[in-house]
Amino acid sequence: MYLGVDEAGKGPVLGPMVAAAVLADPAHLPTDVDDSKRLASDRREAIDGELAALDTVAIGVAFVEPDEIDRPDTDMNTLTVRAQARAARTALSGSVAADLDEPIRVVADAGDTSEERFARRLREFVDAGDGGAGRADATPKASEALPTVDVTAAHGADADDPVVGAASVVAKVSRDERMAAIDAEYAEYADLGSGYPSDPKTRSFLREYVADTGDVPDCARRSWATCDDLLAAAEQAALDEF
Please, which residues have CB within 8 angstroms of residue 38's CB and are 6 or more apart in sequence? Predict the structure, then answer.
């Protein structure tokens, strides 16, 4: 039994990034668990439900909201490792981890060009309870005793390791659920799409919202170039009309 960690939603212009951690014996996982990108959405949702129903599996999920992503005093690599640490600490805080020998092995999908650096930072953040950005998370505080961890990280671990693959599924399903909730908040507009800048539905929504309000919505990462471009275009259009 060991812990796998991954995240979803690193690149979108809308919605949060979501990290997930799964503590499990690979033998207890669904046989077809895989990198979430290789699975159909209905199968991802089914696997997510199967994992949640297993009392031999511990799950942690952490959300990084757009306002945190937009902070000028951070960067995406740091946000990724902090989010993974939050999710890992949640999974490690329950009864599943309590009876395991320490240190508990952690395998992460590396969110940095350097696998070794990402693994080192993730271990430090898990040990320190560094949720980052002063957020009030439900993850255990640094003073709460958690198992010690031995962390490795690898690019493509979500495809190569079944427990990391399970974490990628949980992260993707959690993000999709949040995006559906966000979409419902903007019912007067058409489908928000995936939230990725390349998605025509996402770009159409943002153009319409900016045209209507003169600003991007709260669910947008306003530091992303997509938002800058749309706001600049709206400002130029207003000047042209003047």
Answer: 159
Instruction: Quote the CA–CA distance of 150 and 158 in Å, as a whole number.
Output: 18
Query: 3-state DSSP: the chain helix, strand, coil percent, rounded to 5?
Result: 50, 15, 35
Q: Alpha-carbon distance 136 to 146, whole Å?
A: 19
Report which of residues 227 and 142 the model is more confident about. 227
Q: Which domain holds residue 104?
A: 2-180
Retrieve residue 192's tokens.
């928000």
Note whether 137 and 196 are same-domain residues. Answer: no
**Which tokens is 173 given?**
């399903």
The pTM assigned to this predicted structure is 0.90
Instruction: Give me the half-sphere count of Cα atoms (radius 13 Å) on the Cβ side of residue 193.
Output: 16
Is 193 in the same domain as 173? no
**What would the pLDDT profile of 132-174 be if each residue is shown by its tens digit?**
433 334 566 554 679 999 999 999 999 999 999 999 999 999 9
